[in-house]
């Protein structure tokens, strides 16, 4: 099967499986799993932070960050189209007990003046602005310029408000911007990035920040049920992901651009080429079709896809999607639309 549903669907590489099999483990809740310790140390260095912690998932990483940065009842400023708002099941209200103050974003870019105007003054009626959240690469497929993050961080520092970066696909952003991940992450106080999105690790994400922040986050991870004991088996795959798989993301990006360009040549397909910054291809079908039937059709022809969200389809290239698969995907799409 050619799986285009997400970059989370990749299978661990042979090197990962061998590393997992041979991993030296201990009890990570006691801090004595050497492989987890190595992963956390390496990850922190990679993004230019003092310390890091291994967590089960990206949503877990974002939510433990909100819980650690904020007090209950605080207000968090963030974009109305970001992952924390759109795809994390309202967890911020359940776990951290915070209020989300969403701003209209320009395809992932937040207006600095708008952020500044929404920071709460000290008043008996107001919640405290406890955190600003940004996202890069954005879940809409776009990469946010570093200068935007830099300007937001400057406003946050002026007002003594921390910034959390949802960097689930941080290394995709770094690849597109042709820079190091630490050059993006230096414009935030904490950053989360996934090992299982595009990097082929089977499980896990990293949260990085100051040593004091990570110490607090470690206790909150335990509170949230994230103490994974002999998790070095998983961390071993994470090390391979960061050391090796980050170096090949340009292949996924190139394949996504090629797929988008070829799909856009078809009748009744409109690809948002301007949004193809990383490995995601967003498009709409202008012909009236039954999308459930389309998903079944793809599946019957060896291609796994998700149905549309708000009328927009998304195909995601990944390590298990090869350049030679692209013509077949386009051919199947063309046959369906012209049947």
From TrEMBL:
What the entry lists under SUPFAM superfamilies is as follows: PLP-dependent transferases
GO BP annotation list: glycine biosynthetic process; L-threonine catabolic process
Please report the stretch or stretches of sequence annotated as the Aromatic amino acid beta-eliminating lyase/threonine aldolase domain: 3-284
- Write down the superkingdom of origin: Bacteria
Q: Per the record, GO CC terms?
A: cytosol
Cofactor(s) it depends on: pyridoxal 5'-phosphate
Q: Which InterPro entries does the protein's record reference?
A: ArAA_b-elim_lyase/Thr_aldolase (IPR001597), Low_specificity_L-TA-like (IPR023603), PyrdxlP-dep_Trfase (IPR015424), PyrdxlP-dep_Trfase_major (IPR015421), PyrdxlP-dep_Trfase_small (IPR015422)
Residues that bear N6-(pyridoxal phosphate)lysine: 197
Q: Which UniProt keywords apply?
A: Lyase, Pyridoxal phosphate
Record's family? Belongs to the threonine aldolase family.
Protein name according to UniProt: Threonine aldolase
Q: Which organism is it from?
A: Vallitalea longa
Lineage of origin? Bacteria, Bacillati, Bacillota, Clostridia, Lachnospirales
The protein's gene is named: ltaE
